[in-house]
Amino acid sequence: MRALCYHGVNDLRVETVKDPEILRPGDAIVRVRMSSGCGSDLHLIGGYVPTMQRGDILGHEFLGEVVETGADVKRLSRGDRVIVCSLIGCGHCDYCKRDLWSLCDNSNPNHAMMDALLGDTIAGVDGRLDLTPSRARVPARSRA
After folding, report:
1. What is the pTM of this model?
2. Strands 87-88 and 12-16, how do they pair?
3. 20 to 30 Å CA-CA from 89: which of 75, 79, 82, 135?
């Protein structure tokens, strides 16, 4: 697939990267049809987030089409058009059940890093790979 990749301060490149895979039964793969950078991306591009590494993929808010779903996905089907916001929620914790997605207890596996920086954690955020990971980093050496 093609992706917008970080290569350093003010250095972004569109490159071919490894296709995503279903890792958990609740995952879905979406073919991006339209995407745009947002204001929070400026912190990444400008080098203000020290955890950014060469090869990190940017673009966390987009429109697309579902191309594959995991076994536990019941509300999406192949071909559905979706809007994806940056916050990732598990859909099962108490916060998600109350539509408080940004506080999800389960979608940020690196919550300890956020706890140390901010005194608390937030949900996984697509495109914030180390602090709030929602997908694996695609290292430059594994490019297709």
Report:
1. 0.69
2. unpaired
3. 79
DSSP 3-state of 57: strand
The Cα 137–Cα 128 span in angstroms is 10
98 neighbors 45 (Cβ within 8 angstroms): no
Q: Is residue 96 within 8 Å of residue 115, measured between CB atoms? A: no
The per-residue pLDDT of the chain, averaged, comes to 79
SS3 breakdown of the chain: % helix, strand, coil, rounded to 5? 15, 25, 60
- Quick one: which H or E segment has residue 6? strand 2-6
Q: How confident is the model over 7-19, as a mean pLDDT? A: 92
Task: Take residue 44 and report the two structure tokens written for it.
Answer: 């990444």
What is the number of alpha carbons within 13 Å of residue 7 lying toward its C-beta?
10
